[in-house]
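Bit of a strange request maybe. I'm writing a small parser for structure token strings and I need a real example to test against, not something I typed by hand. Could someone generate the tokens for this chain?
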Amino acid sequence: MGIKEKLRSDLTDAIRSRDELSSGTIRMVLTAITNEEVSGKSARELSEAEVITVLSREAKKRREAAEAFELGERPEQALRERAEGEVIAKYLPQQLSEEELKQLIDVAIAETGATGPAGMGLVMKVLSPKIAGKADGGVVSAAVKAALAQ
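Reply from user aminoacidic:
Good idea to test on real output. This should exercise your parser:
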């Protein structure tokens, strides 16, 4: 069963159990996936990797919104955004640990022979497909920058 099918199945279960948070979040994610499928010149089914990209984007939106609500002193709304992020996280691949990420970065640096900040683009190009959906891009970019600065 693919991620999209799992989302649809879980939506049905959430509606039946009257879980408003889960059903609302899953509906929002399915809408984002559908919007992605119909955007562009021709409508098409998204691959699993593309669905994971959409899920990652939605999770990032929730994290950023929660931070903004915290700054705006609206803790109840921030809590809701974090809860939605947790629902989305159930469908994302297991996130990489700091150690796993560091190993992947070291391999990518060795593979490209990059040195200094100028090599960041090369390293990110090699690293991006390996970490898609498994780590936040901002965290990865900061870790690569730190590794290249050494």
